[in-house]
């Protein structure tokens, strides 16, 4: 079995960011940010725009995780959560590709 390369003192991005609260960003830490930095409310986006925004975030994910400042990573995490939550709310019965399922 391979040993983890993470040292005991190393923290994940989620652990380093004070606004991270397990499954979501804590709204108390991001209260009153400048409105123009938040982006368009996902509920106001057309399906095509919502998908385009998610593509953009996923395309930049690795670079943001590796090289961006903690505040940029926090914004990226928040925005990704907002957009993906909206997508799942619109498509609760989304199609699941059987080839992506693990055999039990």
Number of strands: 2
Major beta sheet, strand line-up: 1-2
- Overall pLDDT, averaged? 77
**CA-based gyration radius:** 16 Å
Poorly predicted regions: 20-31
Oligomer: single chain
- What distance lies between the first and last C-alpha atoms, to the nearest angstrom? 22 Å
Question: How would you summarize this macromolecular structure in one to three sentences?
Answer:
Helix content is 48%, strand content 4%. The protein has 104 residues and is mainly alpha-helical. It starts with 12 loop residues before the first helix and ends in a 14-residue tail after the last helix.
Name a few traits of the molecule.
104 residues; mainly alpha; 4 helices
Notes on the structure:
With 104 residues, the protein is mainly alpha-helical. Helices cover 48% and strands 4% of the residues. The protein has a two-stranded antiparallel ribbon. It is globular. About 12% of the residues have low confidence.
List the helices and strands and how they pair.
Blueprint: H1 13-16, E1 20-21, E2 24-25, H2 35-38, H3 47-67, H4 70-90
Antiparallel strand pairs: 1-2
